[in-house]
Design brief:
Glutamine Phosphoribosylpyrophosphate, subunit 1, domain 1, Rossmann fold, eight-stranded antiparallel β-sheet, six-stranded antiparallel β-sheet, 18 helices, binds 2-deoxy-2-amino glucitol-6-phosphate
Amino acid sequence: MCGIVGYVGKRNAVPVLVEGLHRLEYRGYDSAGLAVVHRGRLQITKTAGRVQDLRDKLREGVRSSVGIGHTRWATHGEPNEVNAHPHTDSSGRIAVVHNGIIENAEQLRDQLQADGVRLVTDTDTEALAHMIAAEAAQDGALEDAVRRVLRRVEGAYGLVVLDVRRPDQLVVARNGSPIVLGLGENEMFVASDVAALVRYTRQVIYLDDGEVATIRAADYQTGMTSRTPTTVEAETGDYELGPYADFMNKEIHEQPDALRRVLRGRLDDRFATARLGGINLDARQLRGIRQVKFLGCGSAYYAGQMGALLVEELARIPADAEPASEFRYRSPVVDPDTLYVAVSQSGETIDTLMAVQELKRKGGQVIGAVNVVGSAIGRECGSGVFLHAGPEVAVASTKALTNMAATFALLGLLIGRVRDLSAAGGQRIVAGLRALPEQVSRILADEEAIAAAAHRFAGAEHMFYIGRVRGWPVAREGAQKLKEISYVHAEAYQAGELKHGPLALIDGSMPSVVIVPSDDLVAKNISTIEQIRARGGRVIAVTSAGLPEDLADAVIRVPRAEPELEPILLNVPLQTLAYHMAAKLGRDIDKPRNLAKSVTVE
Ligand code: AGP
């Protein structure tokens, strides 16, 4: 996906931009480019190749205190050098980098051509460069020129504009596509992703939708009265692979530490409860909650399903989850006594953001469960719980999902303890949560056995993931993970539903992953496995229940945990299973086809 980086300040911008683009490579791209002001002129370098090719093409001795760079993922026009950003106007005054899609680009391009402008690329972005140059030709601030142009633009954008006549500044704008400012000492950075900035600064400001800002080395003006910078948790090493082949594997292995972080300071032994100060609800308000509803998309929705079970079990109040993408469109009845929880790793998913806005419009009580501090959903909610999973780079969510589920256990514990959950019950959950990081480490220590099972089943074209009650959201998330990164068709079913239709599909070519927690449904789950095998189906059992080895074609074991918490553990080997199946099939695991890490546009 496209990436933006920009710099103005005391250093030479060129290496800062190249380094920033290198940090954005993980998002996927097909071409790259940068623009700086050198000896009073725009100096543009582009390539249809990698950032390394761009580095090789750069002219020796080019220095500049200001510049913009871009990695492009083609939308309008082929992925070639001409269409690579930055784009300029005909006079070479204005250079623009842009993420997102301008929906009325055709109309804007037609108008420019009718006015005699010669367009040299197939992109939507080039139109912006010409329009901004025309407006900038009138007197006034560059920011005003950009604002006037944006009034005529429909669509999503994260934008950075460089004017050769104003080399002391950059103008940036955001509408639906993230833009973050990085504050340095007499230098200012801008990027679409903090990954490009963390090497230089951890003090950042996330722009809001509709915001336009001017940044200079010494200051920034966002048009908003006052903005408090956020300190990002990310470190440079979070964006480096280290000994791992890819980020998904790295992030799977980071889960014990990620869990330690999400639990740190949040377990209260004295009162056998959880501390979640960020949700800003006192005991009386917590008692007033009659229902909890989780809203998220994809894996965040499945984590919400795990959360709904946890809240129902621990707090004994009704809870459920719904895809935010459905909720926002169906004119939901918003109940003032329901606590809505918006769940998102990136904090930028448009459907979840829109669901939050809809809820707020209708007076709903909504908190965020978000990983990226300062992101749009977190800010829109205003209160909530941060997931502290650390930056998640791979498109497939692993450690963030695990931390979502652990966070919802904390929420269930907190609400439970102001209601009917006894101190002893609370202590059992506190101890169970505390044990999780080490239990996940034990699962991961067995990666080779899981890989062996994955290799045995990697030839399958279709797979079932079967679970009941606590195993059901685990099965759904497991199937999602396999589909996403291996492109193998996987479908999740509730065990009890098999007999009502899907059992007809079982034969030797349709393996099933059956989730067997150690709860009072073990016998029922064993019988499900037997029914599948009786019809020639092969079974991978993922279990904490000490099942005999010959019950299934492969048995993947996880440690026994407190029953309510077991979904958190049972999910981990499914990540590893999907990972090794995808690796065996030679897939591009971190960047699965057709998918983006965060879905910020419709
Ligand atoms: C997870 O593996 C997927 N890439 C996807 O379903 C993701 O969970 C979904 O797009 C929501 O993203 P978010 O958590 O950033 O809102």
